[in-house]
Specification:
The chain is an alpha/beta fold. Helices cover 43% and strands 12% of the residues. It has 28 helices and 21 strands. It folds into 3 domains: 2-79 and 115-337 and 346-391, Alpha-Beta Barrel (TIM Barrel); 80-114, no CATH class; 404-441 and 473-759, TIM Barrel, CATH 3.20.20.210.
């Protein structure tokens, strides 16, 4: 029986890649220095996996920004608007083109928007969406996959296994950028390039190539299923001497099982963490000679594996296939896991003994192999750790369980039309009111301030005085440029989930449990280990202080229950909806506390509600029912005069729009700038009844959009939705941006709102 890994975190144990990328973007290091940091991370990752005894070790799983963007560059799928970058930039062309596609390009007299970014299936990782045209051509544009394989081979020998995004999933992850064709029809042009890539890898010595095809676990049309068969038959016919391993994850194969096992490949990987029940069906259909990779170690969470459960799955597979056709692996790439638990010396030892990060998950794979070979001592150690967790009083709080059990229907007092009139009279906002999503730039000074306070180098009074001054400065600046609804800037907050988790019971935090969200953006998700409750106010002190500094409306800023759930490592010993309702009750208590403190506008961010949607449509209704109900729990009983906002980012809303409406937020703000308001079509078709703020400023790019650019987006929005229901705001919070670009962009945004007020007439004015 062999072992393998599908992918490993690429940020480095101390987030070296984040720091190097940002230094490169700022011109502080050159390309050679950037590549040196990257090479060191790759080699450390390969050695870690080699030391853990992994038999097939991934390479080409490293990325400076995103693996789907890497694939676009590899295949020459470069939108035409980036051609000037190649003609303008004299050195580092390939890398500067790459980052221009990811982040936009605004220098050397050029102003080019970034490619669209959205969530990787149902994770919080973001990928860069490929753009396809009807006459799209494909070719090998970059040599990175080959040079990286040769580097890995030097260290790993035949254990080195190149990883590619599979051809069908690559097409389906993208978008058609013109009408008149379907991107899946490009498969005939794409196949020869994949054949060439795989054959070249084989000529260099690769024995295995991993092709990630997560779409095999999604709902597929007849044409898409036929494309899978066509693609892999052609690849198999033309590839010589290379074993193909197709990896699926995040869901069961279900109706695609027969298709997946019939592909002419040498190994198939299935996710038995998300869908252990699929093993029997796969085994019933698996043909002779096909090897089966069992994804039994959770690649997306931090809890120790239940060896006894995993061994049952392994033994079931061995009984049917024999040991030589079974491979043990994580459920998916370990990209979604923190890197190393060993450095977390401050964790409660009892709880730490229940956990495993990426490095420890590699050891779990090896230990399971050892247990199959007869080492029962490892099994007994694992059983003791799991029993400690099951019986711990740190996990279970009966008062919390009772409160969740008592939840009934959750609604606002009056319907939206009644609330809207009351709120308009209360706030008297102008047509196209301007606001931001919540956070302002977290400068180095602010981060140092928090760090010194945590280390005890500042007293509470010293720290709070500095935060108060930063808040006042932000308020005065917002007033000076004419923003209508202000925010306090969130200078006291480290992260929109971590800040709340630190004040809720049932959460714990790591010192270095970072995972990549996109590009150089890393997050350190809280760990929900027990029942959740709110012992004290969390935001009232700072929101109330900010509101007292201005006569303009001040938004209270909260993170919603589904987003806290999605952006945390969640306990796996109870249904996710139960944990969500526990969080919802805690946020509900905070909403009422803010309202009692006189805060009239409260934003409850649910950026991740679309992200949590199951990959299979048949499972959507159950999830959406409890997710929407959890949001409504947070706002139930709130007065009509209190305006509730919510925010969602990087989501396709077509298939869930009626549930977005059912959340019944007075105002929703969404990301729409990269898609040029394309996402609003779902709201227009549905005739969305409440107010909406389509983002006109892409905060994930450093470029500063012009006033005319943002005005044109508002005009587009007003063609789709009633202008009197539109707000003006950025796509998302501004925490990761720099002040100069933020100020310039927001000044242009306010000017755009003024232009829109002049250009767009309406019957109903606020």
């Amino acid at each position: 029986m062999r072992t393998q890994n599908l992918g490993y975190p690429r940020i480095g144990g101390q987030r070296q890649l984040k720091k190097a990328n940002e230094q490169y973007w700022a011109g502080k290091i050159n390309l050679t220095e950037l590549n040196q940091v990257a090479q060191k991370i790759k080699e450390e990752n390969w050695r870690t996996q080699l030391d853990a005894g992994i038999d097939l070790i991934p390479c080409n799983d490293f990325s400076f920004y995103d693996q789907t963007l890497d694939t676009s560059l590899l295949l020459g799928v470069i939108p035409q608007r980036y051609a000037p970058v190649l003609s303008q930039v004299k050195s580092n062309q390939e890398m500067d083109l790459y980052f221009a596609m990811a982040r936009g390009y605004q220098k050397d007299g050029l102003d080019i928007t970034a490619m669209e970014m959205t969530k990787w299936l149902d994770t919080n990782y973001h990928y860069i969406v490929p753009e396809f045209t009807a006459h799209q051509e494909f070719r090998i544009y970059t040599e990175t996959v080959f040079t990286e394989y040769m580097s890995a081979k030097q260290l790993l020998g035949q254990k080195a296994k190149p990883v590619l995004v599979g051809p069908i999933s690559y097409l389906l992850l993208g978008k058609e950028k013109e009408e008149g064709f379907e991107r899946i029809d490009l498969i005939n042009k794409l196949i020869p390039v994949y054949v060439e890539i795989i054959n070249r890898l084989g000529q260099l010595g690769a024995e295995w190539v991993q092709l990630d095809e997560p779409y095999l676990a999604l709902d597929l049309s007849k044409k898409e299923k036929e494309a899978f068969t066509l693609a892999y038959r052609n690849i198999a016919d033309q590839v010589n001497g290379v074993n193909l391993l197709v990896a699926t994850y995040f869901e069961a194969l279900l109706d695609n099982t027969a298709l997946a096992v019939s592909l002419p490949i040498q190994a198939l990987h299935i996710d038995l963490v998300r869908a252990p029940e699929q093993l029997d069906e796969v085994l019933a259909l698996v043909p002779d000679q096909l090897q089966l990779s069992l994804g039994i170690i959770d690649g997306r969470n931090v809890w120790k594996n239940d060896y006894e459960h995993s061994l049952n799955l392994i033994n079931t597979a061995i009984e049917k296939l024999g040991t030589d056709r079974v491979i043990v692996a994580p459920s998916c790439s370990l990209l979604h896991s923190p890197i190393d638990l060993d450095g977390e010396t401050a964790l409660d030892p009892e709880i730490k003994n229940w956990m495993a990060f990426a490095k420890q998950k590699l050891n779990e794979i090896s230990e399971l192999k050892q247990i199959v070979e007869g080492n029962n001592t490892l099994l007994e150690i694992n059983k003791k750790a799991l029993e400690s967790r099951r019986s711990s009083q740190k996990v279970h709080k009966q008062v919390v369980k009772n409160r969740v059990a008592a939840i009934t229907d959750a609604t606002r007092i009056s319907a939206f039309p009644i609330r809207q009139q009351i709120q308009r009279a209360r706030f008297n906002l102008p047509f196209f009111p301007t606001t931001t999503i919540g956070s302002f730039p977290q400068t180095e000074d602010i981060r140092q301030l928090r760090a010194k306070f945590k280390k005890g180098e500042l007293t509470t009074d010293q720290y709070e005085q500095s935060i108060e001054q930063a808040t006042i400065d932000a308020i005065r600046w917002q007033e000076s440029i004419g923003i209508d609804v202000l925010v306090h800037g969130e200078f006291e907050r480290n992260d929109m989930v971590e800040y709340f988790g630190e004040q809720l019971e049932g959460f714990l935090f790591t010192n270095n449990g970072w995972v990549q969200s996109y590009g150089s953006r890393c997050v350190k998700p809280p760990v929900i280990f027990g029942d959740v409750s709110r012992p004290n106010d969390m935001t009232v002190r700072w929101t109330k202080f900010a509101a007292a500094q201005t006569d303009k409306p001040m938004k209270g800023m909260l993170t919603g229950p589904v987003t806290i759930l999605q952006w945390s490592f969640v306990r796996d010993d109870q249904p996710r909806e139960v944990t969500t309702n526990q969080i919802a009750l805690a946020i509900h208590d905070e909403v009422l506390a803010l309202e009692a403190a006189g805060i009239g506008i409260i934003q409850i961010d649910e950026a991740a509600i679309r992200e949590g949607l199951p990959l299979r449509k048949a499972k959507h209704p159950h999830y959406l029912d409890w997710a929407v109900k959890a949001f409504r729990v947070t706002t139930s009983g709130v007065a009509d005069k209190t305006q509730i906002h919510t925010h969602m980012c990087y989501s396709e809303f077509n298939d869930i729009i009626e549930h977005i409406a059912a959340m019944d937020a007075d105002v929703i703000t969404i990301e729409t700038s990269r898609s040029q308001m394309e996402l609003l079509h779902a709201f227009a078709h549905f005739e969305y009844p409440n107010e909406i703020g389509p983002g006109v400023y892409d905060i994930h790019s450093p470029r500063v959009p012009s006033t005319d650019e943002m005005t044109s987006l508002l005009v587009k929005a007003s063609d789709l939705l009633p202008a009197q229901n539109l707000w003006v705001n950025p796509d998302c919070g501004l925490k990761t941006r720099k002040w100069p670009e933020t100020k310039a962009a927001l000044e242009n945004m306010v000017a755009a709102a003024k232009q829109a007020r002049e250009q767009i007439s309406t019957v109903s004015i606020r």
